[in-house]
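Hi support team,

I submitted a single chain yesterday and got back a structure, but I'm not sure I'm reading the token output correctly. Could someone confirm the output below corresponds to the sequence I sent? I've pasted both exactly as they appear in my results page.

Thanks,
R.
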Amino acid sequence: MKVLVAPPVTEGQDGSINSMAIEGELVIDPGPCSCDARDCVGAFSFIGAASGRLTTQAVIADLPFLDIREFRTIVVNGCCRECGRDGYADQMVRESRFTANRWPVGSVVGRRDGYAFLQERGTGY
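Hi R., thanks for writing in. Yes, this is the structure output for that exact sequence:
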């Protein structure tokens, strides 16, 4: 199953870093944010499934041992207990799967204005 994982941490020329999530950790695409706040972290970040930490980038990976039921359980039991209770877990699973399936394995994606976009195309399948 294609999923999103946290990238290695890199530092930009301005001193900013791309990820607070743990390298290789499953990350979730929360999808478009419904709030109107201009600086909402949901508009520009993916969420670490275990740590709940944010990352502005994700790498598409293939984890053949993971199935959709297990992935949903990880989302609900990990960072998004409230989302699972409020019914948003399924939406986050769908958004994450949609994003992961849009581009080849190894691609680096970012988020802008609540939507994922391709930063670097991978060469996998």
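A quick pointer for reading it: The longest strand covers residues 57-62. Let us know if anything else looks off.

Best,
Support desk
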